[in-house]
Specification:
This protein is mainly α. It has helices at 2-14, 51-74, 79-114. Helix 1 (2-14) packs across helix 3 and helix 2 (51-74) packs antiparallel against helix 3 (79-114).
């Protein structure tokens, strides 16, 4: 199980094909390609849904809220400056974390579906 988890994290963080680990998973920023250019695995059947957005929002919220309190109350920067800075940080974190989160959840789903018995 740990070898598979390592492979899933490897391909997810790099945006690679969950089947072969060599081709690109994304055709655009968050658009998943129809198939792998290397092994021709069909990606159209799998979908990570809203899971990546939920996990990224949860993580960014856990970072942004304490940061806002520290900047506003701890350092006394004022609400306008604090919320502006925290907003920029939150947007940047969301944009940076969404592609790897989507790729990791897609790879997990890909490997779990592959292990399901045929009906």
């Amino acid at each position: 199980m740990s070898a598979r988890l390592g492979f899933v994290l490897h391909v997810g963080l790099r945006g690679l094909c969950p089947q072969c680990g060599k081709g690109k998973l994304f055709a655009g920023y968050l658009a998943i390609a129809d198939q792998c250019a290397h092994c021709h695995a069909d990606f159209r059947a799998a979908d990570s849904g809203d899971g990546p957005a939920f996990f990224v929002m949860f993580l960014v919220g856990a970072i942004a809220v304490p940061l806002a309190f520290i900047l506003n109350f701890g350092l006394g920067w004022g609400p306008v400056i604090s919320l502006t800075l925290v907003g920029i940080v939150a947007i940047g974190l969301c944009l940076a974390l969404l592609p790897p989160a989507k790729a990791i959840l897609f790879a997990v789903q890909w490997h779990e579906r592959r292990d399901e018995p045929d009906a």
